[in-house]
Amino acid sequence: MQLPREVIVGKGTLDRIPEVTKRLHLKGKALVMSDSVCYDLAGLAVSDFLAQSGLSVDFLLVKTMTAKDVSEIENQIRELKPQVLFGVGGGTIIDAAKISSRSQNIPFISVPTTVSHDGIASPLASIKGSDKPYSVLAQAPLAIIADTNVIAKAPWRFVISGCGDVIAKFTAVKDWKLAHLEKNEYYGEYAASLALMSAKLVIENAELIVNHKDEGLRVLLEALISCGVAMSIAGSSRPCSGSEHLFSHALDIVNSNHAMHGEQCGLGTILMAYFYRGNWKRIRSALKLIGAPTTAKELGVSKGDVVKALELAVRIRPERYTILQKLKPDLEECEKAAKATGIID
Ligand SMILES: [Zn+2]
Fold first, then answer.
1. Radius of gyration of the chain (CA)
2. CA 94 to CA 201: how far, in whole Å?
3. Distance from the alpha carbon of residue 79 to the mean position of ligand 1, in angstroms
4. How far is the CA of 88 from the centre of ligand 1 (A)?
5. How many angstroms is it from 269 CA to the middle of ligand 1?
6. Please, are residues 99 and 78 in contact by the beta-carbon 8 Å criterion?
7. Strand partners of residue 60
């Protein structure tokens, strides 16, 4: 089990970098990885604080993250020989930092600039264009430094996506339990409870998230970090990724002009809760309150694509047993579910 040793969340936390590097005994060279936007937002400040702490700092600009990009980053790490890698950015940068640091055997520190998904603290990462559209095990961050002054600058849609990714844990945990009961899969009560509690807290605090952005951001960040920790405890994405994520991955394949990950997962959660005969209306209300898309139209995809993705989802990851594997809904049943939940008319 790999867990972060330092989690620092709040306003202006970047200036606590010298204190963190001291506590973690970081010395020598640090490599800071970011894209051009996040460099201006936080990368430059991170580099400055590291230099103030007596570390020598190299900077690596990352534009995209394909398998080829990752191997180039790994070459750079081999050449520059940093003792620690800082990933400063959104999902793509953090994932790139996770994968490349793991393969080069150095720790990485997560400095998120958005709250769009739970990868900021999880040990899992995905590579675009790989044969696996879902996340694979890499390594957990040694520390997470989340500055809400930086994160608050990102568009509101990122917050919506983050909420959707946390609310998705309602059905992810149900799927995990189902796999345990029917397929005798390992099920960790503690990891499951942590993921579920995060989802409950986000729903309970939906109004706070919408009306009191600072405080709400903190609730969401803590929920996302807890989800990452739940995955570290479980040693897999099981507590956080179930049939609703399979639907989102399928939608990425069916419609390349897809919406944000958490937006798709949120919509998927309504559908999967319906298949479970659960309280899908409560999930839909919470998503609506936050301003998340709850129809195909709001998500920006066609009715046909939603139905197609829902039918395809079961084949995305055959080894992951979920409600979809149990029910194996055909196109007609998928359409019925999408209509019943008001996702399509
Ligand atoms: Zn997710």
1. 20
2. 25
3. 33
4. 19
5. 11
6. no
7. 33
